[in-house]
């Protein structure tokens, strides 16, 4: 029903004003909804129908080095640009699939219509191991005789490590190469938690298991400093070796440049030092591209467009399942490796009679110890069916990430992969002081000695007997973890415990220690799986399936502030499963 009110007009007269009631509002809502749905459906259909891209002659692959790198790329979101323009939270950060970039570079190498690659920008968020995979692919691309040029205003060190493979490095007149050396930093929450009256009770096995240190220390332990220094210097050595060979600079010269903090030097100094070749505005790169292509009518194609170029379809009965396992390991929910869902996927693969081998692409710092054990068991079930299982380690395959890898038939890693961290810890927050501050009292009845153990630990803090019980459980988890590693790597458990202790190793060190079989990438892992399965013709099939663009869009609309993320980090850590196999979180700059 519509209702009327009277309102004042500009000439002072009263006139009726119509207000829309509930029924009218509903009619308007559903009308707009159906029109919007029809419009979006039409747009989606139109975009899906036109999703295939045809390469043109005289094309340059414009590899835009921006956004955040993830293992598995998703389909282009047709609504992302629309919603970014109207979002009150500003532009959403783009994710780029490492798999798409590597596939695109391979396609560009073998297609005569592509003349070269332009690395546009230097703001792609990526870890050293992924950067090496891209750099190696570009090096292989150049074997075809085609060129690679790079341009950016400011080069971060990891992006510069990739760009150093280019035939020509261009820099903006106001830009710089941030060649300054590596630093690793952690944030510690102990004093902040003390202020609110929360004490984190820690149980752990492993001298180097430093993932929990931010919750009971205010600085790095000597053990953590030792392991961090070792892998940081290993990464820096890889950077200097690659850049030095490409730019004809010695380690001594590169260290001297880093000590000058080249990020604060002029563009002219970058060229003089040999870090760059040409000073040119990025907006004027078309002139240089005309020189390299030999024509003014060249075409540019982006990563997302290149990913839509049709590949040769392989139709083979035998399949190799390639499973991407990326992120923190959780039990039943989360954005990373969800144990329950992963086990379901592996079971599905095991039931497919056409699958003859499995490759696991692991990029994980670990997480829930129980979920790691469940995934490990599902992998063993695949092997029991006669399926070879090969692991390709990405940026991280540490702690729980190594747990789910150790039982494979063969393990590949990049030299700068962070792996190992074989250790276990448990956490129980004690909120006794917080409870006193806010005036909360706890009382109750129990039938047995430890019926109220969990509540007491949280509200009153552990007594010595409870601490011993918990520590025993953690040590039991560590014993199981090391036994899995020992069986998988065919060494003694004593040896695993000796090199374990929660210590993080680089991939190349893991190779010498026997934690890894060989240095290599995901293509090497697939080739090994094919060899072990004795296949001639095969088709790779990928898991998990590509995420729906709409779901991805809704997931990306996040207006969380940095302060809120910090609070959630502490909250999430307090609410994690009691037993964790997680490597330390550290930021490398």
CATH topology of the domain at 59-180 and 261-307: 2-enoyl-CoA Hydratase, Chain A, domain 1
Quote the beta fraction.
15-25%
Tell me the CATH superfamily of the domain at 59-180 and 261-307: 2-enoyl-CoA Hydratase, Chain A, domain 1
What is the general shape?
globular
Q: How far from one another are the termini?
A: 64 Å
SSE blueprint:
Blueprint: E1 3-8, E2 14-19, H1 22-49, E3 59-70, H2 80-86, E4 95-97, H3 98-110, E5 114-125, H4 128-142, E6 147-155, H5 157-163, E7 168-177, E8 184-185, H6 190-196, E9 199-205, H7 222-247, H8 251-259, H9 267-273, E10 278-279, H10 285-293, E11 299-301, H11 303-307, E12 319-326, E13 329-330, E14 337-338, H12 339-351, E15 355-364, E16 366-368, H13 369-384, E17 389-398, H14 400-403, E18 410-413, E19 418-420, E20 424-430, H15 432-438, H16 453-459, H17 464-489, H18 493-499, E21 504-506, H19 507-513, E22 518-519, H20 522-533, E23 539-543, H21 549-556, H22 562-574, E24 579-582, E25 587-588
Parallel strand pairs: 3-4, 3-5, 3-11, 5-6, 6-7, 7-10, 12-15, 12-23, 13-14, 15-17, 17-18, 17-19, 18-22
Antiparallel strand pairs: 1-2, 8-25, 9-20, 16-24, 19-21, 20-24
Helix pairs in contact: 3-4, 4-5, 5-7, 12-13, 17-18
């Amino acid at each position: 029903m519509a209702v009327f009110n009277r309102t004042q007009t500009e000439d002072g007269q009263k006139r009726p004003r119509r207000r829309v009631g509930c029924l009218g509002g509903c009619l308007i809502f559903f009308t707009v909804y159906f029109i919007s749905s029809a419009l979006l459906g039409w747009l989606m259909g139109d975009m899906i129908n036109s999703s295939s891209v045809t390469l043109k002659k005289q094309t340059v692959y414009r590899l835009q080095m921006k956004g955040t790198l993830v293992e598995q790329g998703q389909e282009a979101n047709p609504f992302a640009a629309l919603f970014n323009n109207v979002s009150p939270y500003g532009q959403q950060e783009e994710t780029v699939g490492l798999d798409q970039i590597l596939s695109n570079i391979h396609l560009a190498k073998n297609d005569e219509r592509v003349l070269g690659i332009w690395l546009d920008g230097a703001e792609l968020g990526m870890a050293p191991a992924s950067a090496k995979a891209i750099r190696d692919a570009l090096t292989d691309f150049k074997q075809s005789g085609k060129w690679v040029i790079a341009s950016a205003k400011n080069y971060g060190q990891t992006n510069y490590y990739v760009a150093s493979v280019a035939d020509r490095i261009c820099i903006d007149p106001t830009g710089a190469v941030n060649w300054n050396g590596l630093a690793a930093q952690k944030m510690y929450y102990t004093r902040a938690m003390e202020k609110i009256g929360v004490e984190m009770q820690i149980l752990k096995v492993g001298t180097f298991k430093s993932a929990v240190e931010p919750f009971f220390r205010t600085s790095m332990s000597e053990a953590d400093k030792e392991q961090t220094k070792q892998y940081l210097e290993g990464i820096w050595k890889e950077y200097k070796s690659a850049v030095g060979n490409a730019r004809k600079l010695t380690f001594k010269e590169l260290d001297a440049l880093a000590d000058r903090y080249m990020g604060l030097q002029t563009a002219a100094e970058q060229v003089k030092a040999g870090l760059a070749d040409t000073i040119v505005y990025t907006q004027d790169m078309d002139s240089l591209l005309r020189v390299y292509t030999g024509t003014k009518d060249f075409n540019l194609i982006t990563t997302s467009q290149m990913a839509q170029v049709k590949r040769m379809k392989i139709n083979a009965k035998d399949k190799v399942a390639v499973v991407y396992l990326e992120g923190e390991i959780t039990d039943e929910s989360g954005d990373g490796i969800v144990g329950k869902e992963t086990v379901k996927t592996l079971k599905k693969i095991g039931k497919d009679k056409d699958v003859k081998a499995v490759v696991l692409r692991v990029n994980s710092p670990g997480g829930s110890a129980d979920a790691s054990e469940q995934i490990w068991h599902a992998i063993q079930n695949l092997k029991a069916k006669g399926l070879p299982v090969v692991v390709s380690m990405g940026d991280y395959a540490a702690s729980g990430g190594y747990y789910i890898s150790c039982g494979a038939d063969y393990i590949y890693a990049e030299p700068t992969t962070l792996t190992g961290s074989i250790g276990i810890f448990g956490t129980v927050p004690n909120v006794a002081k917080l409870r006193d501050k806010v005036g909360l009292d706890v009382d109750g009845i129990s039938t047995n000695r430890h019926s109220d153990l969990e509540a007491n630990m949280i509200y009153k803090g552990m007594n010595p007997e409870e601490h011993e019980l918990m520590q025993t459980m953690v040590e039991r988890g560590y014993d199981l973890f090391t036994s899995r590693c020992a069986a998988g790597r065919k060494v003694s458990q004593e040896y695993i415990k000796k090199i374990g202790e929660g210590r993080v190793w680089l991939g190349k060190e893991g190779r010498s220690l026997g934690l890894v079989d060989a240095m290599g990438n995901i293509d090497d892992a697939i080739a090994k799986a094919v060899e072990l399965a004795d296949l001639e013709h095969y088709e790779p099939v990928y898991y998990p399936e590509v995420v729906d663009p709409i779901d991805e869009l809704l997931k990306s609309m996040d207006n969380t502030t940095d302060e809120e993320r910090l609070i959630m980090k502490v909250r999430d850590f307090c609410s994690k499963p009691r037993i964790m196999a997680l490597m330390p979180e550290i930021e490398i700059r």
